[in-house]
Amino acid sequence: MRPPIHIHLARSAGFCFGVRRAIRMAHELARKKQSVRMLGELVHNETVIRELEAAGIRKIRRLARNTNGILLLRAHGASRELINRARRCGYRIADATCPMVREIHRIVRRMDRRGDRIIVIGDRQHDEVQGIIGQIRRKALVIDAPGHIPWKAIRRIHRAAIVVQSTQNLDRVTPIVAALKAAIPRIVFFNTICRPTRMKQEEIKILPRHNDIMIVIGSRTSANTRRLYEISRSLNPRTHWIQSAHEINRRWMKGIRTVGITAGASTPESATQAVIARIRELSRLSAKVHSTSAK
Ligand code: SF4
Fold first, then answer.
1. Which of 47, 231, 236, 291 is the most exposed, having the fewest neighbouring CB atoms within 10 Å of its CB?
2. Catalytic residue among 46, 128, 203, 269
3. Whole-model pTM?
4. Any idea which fold 100-193 has?
């Protein structure tokens, strides 16, 4: 019999507390038989969305007029304009915005009132960034990479406040902050990358170095899963990004002794357990699971 495959599971794998809280709120509302709608997806995971829909929560593409239902705001938060529009349509708001995202909203509003120009480091198209820039009337600048700094606009700014999308990679953020600090006379930087993301990123810098292959579990639409995958891939080319256990290829297990596993913040525990079970099956029950941490 071949020696056992050791599975090293990141302690931070799977739901962060913001996502867990949003899902719990959704199920509590559904249990009360309320008419609950989510605008788009509450979290970026197809299994979770299917479970929510099965519980009676309907996904809508746009706000309906003259309704009396409940609109559940997602963990990423929403712009003020969207919330006001929903209220005008008759929705009651159930706010599942993660407390850490809400803190970014507070910072942005406070610094905007002080007269600082708001700069957000993050992905412009991401719902969280849309929600952040939608907290203020003045146009915020969004920067997603050092090569995309709008220098013409930056040179006209005398005071600014920088915040960061909660799931950004600090290594990508640092050079942007350094360049902005050198160019803007009065600038404050708020590192708003959330604690669960930092933990995940610390672990993902270690696990790929100590395992023969890496498996990152999460939806293709999940920005934080993508970042985990990118970091892992840069450290270990044998990194595989899968959405479910069915995608595991038997050939990946050939000749290996160790597998590192992590999962995005919106990946349910059941998906991670299914991956572990599949690896066990492929290695004929000779896999040992270890919980591991960067600390
Ligand atoms: S990733 Fe961070 S900010 Fe986003 S929901 Fe989770 S804990 Fe909150």
1. 291
2. 128
3. 0.87
4. Cobalt-precorrin-4 Transmethylase; domain 1 (3.40.1010)
